[in-house]
Write a structure and sequence with these properties.
The complex is a heterodimer of chains A (159) and B (511).
Chain A: H1 3-19, H2 26-37, H3 44-52, H4 56-65, E1 77-82, H5 85-88, H6 92-103, E2 116-121, E3 133-135, E4 138-140, H7 145-157
Parallel strand pairs in A: 1-2
Antiparallel strand pairs in A: 1-3, 3-4
Helix pairs in contact in A: 1-2, 1-3
Chain B: E1 4-7, H1 12-16, H2 19-33, E2 37-40, E3 54-58, E4 61-65, H3 73-78, E5 90-93, H4 98-101, H5 119-124, H6 129-135, H7 139-149, H8 161-170, E6 177-182, H9 191-198, H10 200-214, E7 218-223, H11 228-244, E8 259-264, H12 274-281, E9 305-309, H13 310-322, H14 324-328, E10 338-345, E11 351-356, H15 361-368, E12 378-383, E13 390-391, H16 402-407, E14 416-421, H17 426-440, H18 446-463, H19 468-485, H20 489-493, H21 495-504
Parallel strand pairs in B: 1-2, 6-7, 6-9, 7-8, 10-14
Antiparallel strand pairs in B: 1-3, 3-4, 4-5, 10-11, 12-13, 12-14
Helix pairs in contact in B: 6-10, 6-13, 7-8, 7-10, 9-10, 10-13, 17-18, 17-21, 18-19, 19-21
Classes of the chains: A alpha+beta (159), B alpha/beta (511).
The structure holds flavin mononucleotide, iron/sulfur cluster and FE2/S2 (inorganic) cluster (FES).
């Protein structure tokens, strides 16, 4: 058994212990796993299934249904670009084109250096100062192409 | 000498336009000049076009500056800040800012005034009065009060809240639940977020009152994952409310019990639909359930459940505190209380507006909103979120209430108003409505799951000029099929933006 498997086991056990007695514990448990690893490792599924007495198929179904759950590791920073209407009205489509070009990746992909993952999002609740993007847990407003480049450059300059 | 109070909003949008850096500059500037200040991160008042809006407490009340950048801070100090500095960004007393002063704030009365984490602030501004009142009343009396207020659900469907509560109350005693729908997925809306980030105890109070009314001792808040600040805020205030006895085994020292748990969504628009939300809470895929049974009869884990929007639950605390008639008297016709709208998109003065029902769309977009941010003419206004209609200039004098908007083929929904200037391509907006439906459909019924994909293809063909007349007819038929054959409003209302674009902006489809 390698060390990362032990860690996964521990994380699952802790998450299950914390949420086992809650109503409908599966989403909170999956959230806890993803918060630790940045994605839901394949090997987590049988562990969660055993601990919560659910079928693996059920868990795969849930992971596949929700946009947030990832089955592949994410980059160091996850960029969510808002694609919804209020942001469309202020240039989100151009920003999206630019972001893909600047980072050289499409939605759902991670840059080869492992720095950035790009994801779409439909509204960040920042619609009065659009367009909006979210970088990790921070939301940014009125993101022009120049502002986007500045934000990316800042993140790139940090080792 | 007591420290001077300085307020810098900490809500998502204020931070997104740089409030944290402003707060740092102020702290550093005050330290450098030897001023003793108390920096409070209040919630925003929702005048987002003025954020970051810095306030100071003076002998004459709160005094505002905005929008402030970190670069402005040294200049502010030089002009006398944190006193009533004479500076280009000085806006004078908060109570004199017309954009805010002309509003009628009930649900958002405290937003921006108080420290959202402080229960003392909450109490000092009339908080918990409604709950104290409810603790003296019978469940039926509470439900009657809500019925009499005329409150209709603010999540979108506008169902009378009191009637929903009555149904849950009428179910035999046993485990019942209160579920707060904080999924706020509609583009152009942020009122739920603002309430949670600016006045979270109001929501908690409303939920406890709902529990007393229907006999439920357990509540859940289902919060979308796209709102990390709300999550942090709720995690903190739930603990504080438990310590203070607002939640737990002895609500405000009584023998009543109410526990509250926060749950985070996982990025699925459909989980805002109440039955999908309940399945998600139960740990399943968020599939929409057939109705009946209503959630009020068989909801969470098959038990009677109240599902209400954040604003509906918030309003309940006002209704109980001030009385049903106080609330009802603000409305017109069947739209009672205040109208909460959010001005968004390409708008000069975006933010939250709470006023009595009766204003027109034009009053809001031109009056409060000041037209577009781009300075170009407004061309289309989408009201009511991604499933709402695009309203053309000929209808901007429509009164914003549930019935009047319905009469012109639109809906108020959760009150999102998204403004587009004349560069908008309405065929692309119609295409997006279909694309969004395809992305977010729960997959249970064919007209929604497959129809939306077909809709995208059809619009592409129409725009490319392929058999335009025929494909336009097929698109109309598809809208009918989705409208009539979908189980819920996701598939059922996606035709609303599409049809409004077809009807009012036909030339964008290449004719
Ligand atoms: C596709 C869809 C999405 C919805 N999203 C939300 C939402 O994000 N928030 C909300 O409160 N209601 C939403 N609703 C409405 C809920 O189903 C339900 O009517 C509401 O939560 C009831 O609360 P209320 O009566 O207080 O409005 C949505 C409905 C549909 C069909
Ligand atoms: S209309 Fe769409 S979202 Fe609603 S139940 Fe049917 S498939 Fe699911
Ligand atoms: S639509 Fe982009 S933040 Fe709301």
């Amino acid at each position: 058994m390698n060390s990362s498997a032990v860690t996964l086991q521990e994380v699952v056990e802790n998450a299950v212990a914390r949420h086992q007695h809650s109503l409908g514990p599966l989403l909170p448990v999956l959230h806890a796993i993803q918060e630790t690893f940045g994605f839901i490792p394949r090997d987590a599924v049988p562990l969660v299934a055993g601990a919560l007495n659910l079928s693996r198929a059920e868990i795969h179904g849930v992971i596949g249904f929700y946009h947030d759950y990832r089955t592949e590791p994410a980059g160091e920073h996850t960029l969510h670009l808002c694609r919804a209407e209020a942001c469309q009205a202020t240039g989100a489509a151009e920003l999206e084109l630019h972001a893909r070009e600047r980072l050289g990746i499409d939605f759902g992909e991670t840059t080869p250096d492992g720095r950035f993952t790009l994801e779409p999002v439909y509204c960040l609740g920042n619609c009065a100062c659009a367009p909006a993007i979210r970088i990790n847990d921070d939301t940014f407003a009125r993101v022009s192409i120049e502002k986007f480049d500045r934000l990316i450059a800042e993140l790139e300059s940090v080792e | 000498m007591t420290a001077l109070k300085v307020y810098v909003p900490g809500d998502t949008t204020a931070r997104a336009v740089g409030a944290d850096a402003v707060a740092e500059s102020i702290t550093a500037g005050a330290a450098g000049r030897g001023f003793e200040i108390e920096l409070i991160r209040n919630g925003s008042r929702g005048a987002f076009w003025l954020e970051p809006m810095v306030e100071i407490e003076t002998a004459n009340g709160r005094f505002a500056f905005g929008p402030v950048t970190p670069e402005d801070v040294p200049g502010l100090f030089e002009s006398g800040f944190p006193g009533e500095a004479d500076h280009v960004l000085a806006m004078g007393p908060v109570n004199g800012i017309d954009w805010l002063a002309s509003q009628q704030r009930l649900t958002f009365a405290r937003a921006g005034w108080i420290d959202p984490l402080s229960l003392d602030d909450y109490r000092a501004t009339g908080g918990l009065k409604g709950l104290e009142q409810a603790l003296r009343m019978s469940p039926q009396e509470i439900v009657d009060e809500v019925k009499e207020s005329g409150l209709r659900g603010r999540g979108g469907a506008a169902f009378p809240t009191g009637i929903k509560w009555q149904t849950v109350l009428d179910q035999p005693a046993g485990q019942k639940y209160i579920v707060c729908n904080a999924d706020e997925g509609d583009s152009g809306t942020f009122a739920d977020r603002l309430l949670i980030e600016s006045d979270p105890y109001q929501l908690i109070e409303g939920m406890v009152i709902a529990g007393l009314a229907v006999g439920a001792d357990q509540g859940f808040i289902y919060l979308r994952s796209e709102y990390p600040r709300c999550r942090k805020m709720l995690e903190e205030v739930i603990v504080l409310a438990e310590q203070d006895g607002l939640l737990g085994d002895a609500i405000l020292g009584s023998d009543r019990v109410f526990r509250l748990e926060l749950r985070i969504g996982a990025g699925a628009y459909i989980c805002g639909e109440e039955t999908s939300l309940l399945d998600s809470l139960e740990g399943k895929r968020g599939l929409v359930r057939f109705k009946p049974p209503l959630p009020a009869i068989e909801g969470l884990m098959g038990r009677p459940t109240v599902v209400n929007n954040v604003l509906s639950l918030g309003a309940v605390s006002t209704i109980l505190a001030e009385g049903a008639s106080h609330y009802r008297d603000f409305g017109t016709g069947r739209s009672r209380g205040t109208l909460t709208v959010q001005l968004a998109g390409n708008i000069r003065r975006g933010g939250l507006v709470e006023i009595p029902f009766g204003a027109t769309l034009r009053d809001l977009v031109e009056g409060y909103g000041g037209g577009t941010a781009s300075g170009r003419p407004v061309r289309a206004i989408q009201v009511g979120g991604p499933l709402g209609a695009y309203i053309p200039a000929t209808h901007w004098d429509v009164v914003l209430d549930y019935e009047a908007l319905g009469a012109i083929g639109g809906m108020l929904g959760h009150g999102g108003i998204v403004v587009f200037d004349d560069t908008v391509d309405m065929a692309q907006q119609a295409r997006f409505a279909m694309e969004f439906c395809a992305t977010e459909s729960c997959g249970k019924c064919t007209p929604c799951r497959v129809g939306s994909v077909r809709g995208v293809e059809l619009i592409d063909r129409i725009v490319a000029g392929q058999e335009r007349a025929l494909n336009l007819q097929v698109l109309e038929d598809l809208c009918d099929t989705m409208d009539k054959g979908s189980l819920c409003a996701m598939g059922g209302l996606t035709p609303m933006p599409v049809r409004s674009a077809l009807r009012h902006f036909r030339k964008d489809f290449g004719e």
